[in-house]
Amino acid sequence: MFKNETSKNVKDxxxxxxxxxxxxxxxxxxxxxxxEGKLNGNLSTxxxxxxxxxxxxxxxxxxxxxxxxxxVKGNVxxxxxxxxxxxxxxxxxxxxxxxxxxxxxxxxxHIKMNGSEKTPKNKxxxxxxxxxxxxxx
Amino acid sequence: MYLYIYDxxxxxxxxxxxxxxxxxxxxxxxxxxxxxxLNLLKNISDFIDREIKQGAHTVxxxxxxxTFSQAxxxxxxxxxxxxxxxxxxxxxxxxxxxxxxxxxxCDVLSGRIIKKxxxxxxxxxxxxxxxxxxxxxxxxxKIDNFEIKAAADNKIxxxxxxxxxxxxxxxxxxxxxxxxxxxxxxxxxxxxxxxxSLFATKEINISSKNDSVPLLLDNYQKINTPAxxxxxxxxLQMIVGTNRQF
Lengths: 137, 246
Fold this sequence. Notes:
By secondary structure, chain A is an all-beta fold.
C-alpha cells in the first residue's frame, strides 16, 4: 500500500512539484498533485495529493485524499482517506474520514475523524500498531 | 482561392524536384493559388489582407517547422484557414497534425479536415509549440497566486502541444486551452519523475531578478523577460490529416 505510491497516477496528475523547485503562495488545484520539493503557503485541491519522502511542506493542506511520506508543518484536512507512511512527519492537526498510519511515522497534533477526536499519546511512534505494521484508524 | 507561402530556402537546386512534385500535385488536385516567398516577410500581412478581400480562404505554408512558426505571427490575426506542406520528414508539427511529407501533403489539403488549434501568446508575439528558457537562474515564475523558484541549472519548457509527454506520458493537447510548463533538471532527461516538475495553467508571468533572461519561441526566435505567456483557445483554423495526434 505504501511502497508503490510514489509512481501512482503520474499520467493523471495535473501538477508535479519536483525536488529542485520551491513554490510559495496559495496553490489551488482541481486535479491530482505530486510534491517532491518545497512548498510554503497554502495548498488545496479536490483531487489527490502525494507528498514524497523528500518534500518539505510549510502549509495548511486541504484535499480530497492524500498520501504523505515527507515533512508537513501545518494542518491537514482531507475529505476522504489519508495515508501516512513511516517516513512522514506531520506537525499539525489532521482531519480525515479515514486514516492509515504506518509504524514509524510522526504526528504531532490532534487527529479528528468523522467528528471524533484523538491525540496520539506518543507522537513519534505509533506504538499501537502491533501485528500488521500499521495503524488503521 | 489558396495562397502558397514558400520558405526562401526552397529556391535551391536541392529542393527543385520536391517543389515540382508539389506544384504538379496542386494542379492535379485543382487547388491552385497565388505564390509568395517568405523573404518578403514585411509585406506578408498586407499581402494576405489584400488576397482575403479578393476571395482567398486558405494560406498554405511550404517549408519546415521554423517556416511555419515564422509565418504564424503574420497570419494568426486573419480570418483564414491555414495549411502546411512540410519539406522535410522531421517536422514535429507535421507529425502532430497528421500531414505527410512533400507532395502527399496536398492530399491532406484537398481533404480539408479543419480543426481549431490553441495558440500560445507571449507579450505581443505568438507561438505554436513551445517556449524554452535554458537556465532558470534568476528567473521568477508567477502563476495565479503563487511563485515558483527553480534551481539555477534547471531548464524551463512551456508547451502548447507535443506528441510525447515529458513526464509520465503527460501529453500537451493543442485543443484543451491549457499550457504545460515543465521544469527539468539537466543531464537526467526525464528518467526520474521526482527530479522534474509539471504545472498546467492558462497564464504564466516570467520575470528575472537582475538582467533579462532570453526565451526561445518555437526554437527559432528569442525574446527577453519580462514575459506574459498565455494561451488563446482555438485561435488557429488548421487543415489536418486523419493521422493527427489529438
